[in-house]
Amino acid sequence: MTKPLIIAIDGPAASGKGTLARRLAAQYGLPHLDTGLTYRAVAHRLLQFGLPLENVSAAETAARQLDLGDMNREVLSQHAVGEAASKVAVMPSVRRILVDKQREFAAKGAVLDGRDIGTVVCPDASVKLYVTASPQVRARRRHDEMVAGGKDVSYETILADIERRDARDMGRADSPLKPAESAYLLDTSQMDIEAAFSAAKTIIDVRLSAENTI
Ligand SMILES: Nc1ncnc2c1ncn2[C@@H]1O[C@H](COP(=O)(O)OP(=O)(O)OP(=O)(O)O)[C@@H](O)[C@H]1O
Ligand SMILES: Nc1ccn([C@@H]2O[C@H](COP(=O)(O)O)[C@@H](O)[C@H]2O)c(=O)n1
């Protein structure tokens, strides 16, 4: 049986991994899962019921009840939900439940983006990318996106939020954000979306053709 094509994309907040993952999924005809949405959905559930984000058993229940096919991107994309998501994401039991669902999604081949795809969720992925950019560039992109969406928020606030989220995601004990050993590093600080896509596609095509000739 041939191995399913799994493309694992990790990186910090607003690095552009979701944009790349969507483009690559269309390019290679694969389903795409934004795993950040799964943590956001759990956090959003707690916020909806006025429960503290430290309530492990409520977070576990929300994770178990989560239907990957029923996540509302527009609601979950709110900036405050991202901050809350990084708090529930430190809970090992919640991670185990969500990782099982993410692996099930990936089983027949997919593009997944997140923080631990290459290291934990799909360690055997065909290609692993670690997409990054400086905190200032990421904050500028996120700020532009929010202003275009009609939000009144300062660049400084977004930069501080991004730095705090990086520290939490990289510093947690379970599944911290870090490049997988075999990941290709893609720093997009000086690249527009088109250039980042083209660089990622070249990396993947070279990797896949090398695999086919071994
Ligand atoms: N290379 C790039 N150059 C300029 N803008 C970009 C680039 N890549 C992505 N963007 C823009 O930056 C913003 C953040 O990108 P995106 O949502 O893909 O990041 P992300 O890493 O998935 O973020 P998050 O972790 O918060 O889900 C979006 O507005 C996107 O259009
Ligand atoms: N594989 C993942 C994906 C996400 N997280 C946590 O969720 C937060 C929100 O993610 P976004 O990509 O939607 O911004 C993120 O800050 C992480 O704390 C994760 O732990 N693992």
UniProtKB/TrEMBL annotation:
SUPFAM superfamilies: P-loop containing nucleoside triphosphate hydrolases. ATP binds at G11, P12, A13, A14, S15, G16, K17, G18, T19. Its main location: cytoplasm. Residues 7-195 form the Cytidylate kinase domain. Its EC number is 2.7.4.25. It is found in: Cytoplasm. Keywords: ATP-binding, Cytoplasm, Kinase, Nucleotide-binding, Transferase. Transmembrane segments: none annotated. GO terms for molecular function: kinase activity. Pfam families: Cytidylate_kin. It catalyses: dCMP + ATP = dCDP + ADP; CMP + ATP = CDP + ADP. Belongs to the cytidylate kinase family. Type 1 subfamily. This is Cytidylate kinase. The gene is cmk.
